[in-house]
């Protein structure tokens, strides 16, 4: 069956995950916990930051998890109400700082224009919150390309449950098998499989190397810049 839609992971696939989020989280944690840079990095280490490389480790909570999972680690004694408040703080209260730090991995508009020219429907699937993800895409000037921003707070269970694939399929009127999932983490490929996606495409623009992700994918490419050419030559696309 031909691919008619593409669902993109956000951080590490469209956004420079380390260049954006390492300085952002360092700043946020210094403020919230009243610690210095070393203290902030120690907190980041708890959720998957590698101080020797200055990067997030593949598949870690900070690279692939939800805000709720971060809250559970950093504030383990918090009540349910406090957990919700901390999640709101992380997702929304530092928006100006995030906007200043936000870095796309590459010029995204030409990629999305090429995919739209192929008649494809586009969406984002992220374990971030929807409001946060919409703000990020809007800040990068690409929000209008997407039919839907699917987030951790818009589906019953976040990635890799498959719920994001199924949600995007319902919104667009497609079958899951007509959707390609594109991402930089193993859980993106698992989302594709669990949701019945027709294609799982791994990109090496995040923190995962081919040894972490290629065996889970149908195709592995360096970045989303290569995606229009890949989809154009798939056998079913030419029918």
Measured as a percent range, the helix fraction is: 40-55%
- State the total count of DSSP E strands: 8
Secondary structure class reads: alpha/beta
Distance between the termini: 10 Å
Q: Count the DSSP helices.
A: 12
Mean pLDDT: 94
**How much of the polypeptide forms β-strand, as a percent range?**
5-15%
Lateral strand order in the biggest sheet: 5-4-1-6-7-8
3D shape: globular
List the helices and strands and how they pair.
Layout: E1 5-8, H1 17-33, H2 37-45, E2 49-50, E3 55-56, H3 61-64, H4 67-74, H5 80-93, H6 95-101, H7 108-117, E4 121-125, H8 130-139, E5 148-150, H9 163-172, E6 179-183, H10 186-195, E7 199-203, H11 210-213, E8 219-221, H12 227-232
Parallel strand pairs: 1-4, 1-6, 4-5, 6-7, 7-8
Antiparallel strand pairs: 2-3
Helix pairs in contact: 1-2, 4-5, 9-10
Please explain how this structure is put together.
The chain is of the alpha/beta class. The protein is 46% helix and 12% strand. It has twelve helices and eight strands. It has a six-stranded parallel beta sheet with strand order 5-4-1-6-7-8, sandwiched between helices. Helix 8 links the parallel strand 4 and strand 5 (148-150). The longest helix has 17 residues, at 17-33. The relative contact order is 0.18.
List keywords for this structure.
single chain; 239 residues; alpha/beta; six-stranded parallel β-sheet; two-stranded antiparallel sheet; 46% helix; globular
């Amino acid at each position: 069956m031909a691919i008619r839609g593409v669902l993109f992971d956000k951080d590490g696939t469209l956004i420079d995950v380390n260049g954006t989020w390492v300085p952002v989280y360092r700043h946020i944690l210094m403020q919230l916990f009243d610690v210095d840079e070393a203290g902030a990095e120690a907190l980041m280490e708890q959720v998957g930051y590698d101080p020797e490389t200055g990067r997030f480790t593949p598949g870690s909570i900070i690279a692939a998890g939800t805000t709720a999972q971060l809250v559970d680690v950093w504030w383990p004694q918090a009540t349910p109400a406090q957990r919700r408040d901390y999640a709101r703080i992380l997702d929304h209260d530092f928006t100006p700082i995030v906007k200043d730090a936000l870095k796309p991995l590459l010029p995204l508009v030409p990629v999305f224009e090429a995919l739209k020219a192929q008649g494809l429907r586009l969406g984002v699937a992220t374990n971030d919150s929807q409001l946060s993800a919409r703000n990020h895409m809007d800040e990068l000037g690409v929000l209008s390309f997407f039919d839907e921003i699917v987030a951790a707070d818009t589906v019953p269970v976040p990635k890799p449950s498959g719920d994001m694939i199924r949600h995007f399929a319902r919104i667009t009127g497609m079958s899951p098998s007509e959707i390609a999932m594109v991402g930089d983490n193993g859980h993106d490929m698992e989302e594709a499989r669990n949701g019945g996606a027709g294609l799982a495409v791994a990109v090496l623009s995040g923190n995962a190397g081919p040894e972490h992700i290629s065996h889970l994918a149908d195709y592995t490419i360096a970045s989303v810049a290569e995606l229009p050419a890949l989809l154009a030559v798939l056998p079913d696309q030419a029918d």
